[in-house]
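FYI - complex with 1-O-phosphono-alpha-D-glucopyranose, inputs then prediction.
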Amino acid sequence: MSEHSANLSSTVAATGRPLAVKAVIPAAGLATRFLPATKAVPKELLPVVDRPVLQYIVEEATQAGIGDVLLITGRGKTSMVDHFDRRPDLEARLEEKGDAERLAAVRRPSELAEIYTVRQPEQLGLGHAVGYAESHVGDQPFAVLLGDEFVKLSEPLLPAMLELQARTGGVVLAFFEVDPADTKRYGIASVEPAESELTDIGEVVKVTGMVEKPKPEDAPSNLAVLGRYVLPGKIFDAIRRTKPGSGGEIQLTDAMELLRTEGTPVHAIVYRGTRYDTGMPLGYLQTVVQIAAERDDLGAEFRSWLAEFVKADAAGGSGT
Ligand code: G1P
């Protein structure tokens, strides 16, 4: 299906260690924050303009050279997989009509990567979900991309993370700075400067501790874990040894912290680009507006409508 896997299985970083070539997208969650919209539609399929969130995430993996994507799915979520399948009946209709543009758009998801799935039968936490990837990824390093956030394609993050992991062989994270009042929504880390030989990759820090969703008064910093990870295969054993933590769930943060205390190096790239968080209604709306405003086809018209709307709203009208 894709040309990527063939090209990239032999990709080797400067150190001689191979770059991770598989990605895992945990997408089995219930999405209670979006009910009732997500009663029958997986939140990963909510549209951002005309593409579902999940397609942006798979495109981010593909852009980083990853051609093998494992979706961790659950009950009621099979339509996610259909999005990446061919749709011969629809394609034939578009071909008959000579609509080449829509035909390409319909085919594109199926051309991005090889898509595999595994089911997480009960939702016991992010660490628990990632544990289901073991038989697919084996003992090789792999990337994890959370199913409700993505970064701007022109400000990529994953390539540097893959390079960093190939050099350290350990756990690689990405951080973004949050308002100290918001630490209880994220994994939060304490850090120190990274070894000098790693700093050519980007703004790299060495992690000295991680805690999942601390209260602001307990947070070791305001550096939050972004939903991108590159993990060594030994994470699976650590997940098995991880007890339920924050929210009674088996947390990936706790499994990574366990590896760190046992001597696995943990580094992170501080990401200063644009992160879109579609996991909550407000972030989702912000994402739609930003991406729509930047689209070549409708951006100009949308921006001028938006400017008018804001102006009228500030003046006390509805703008519509
Ligand atoms: C998850 C992780 C958390 C991370 C966050 C990023 O939390 O557990 O460490 O900071 O994603 O979005 P969730 O959003 O699933 O509650």
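Residues 280-320 form one domain. The radius of gyration is 20 Å.
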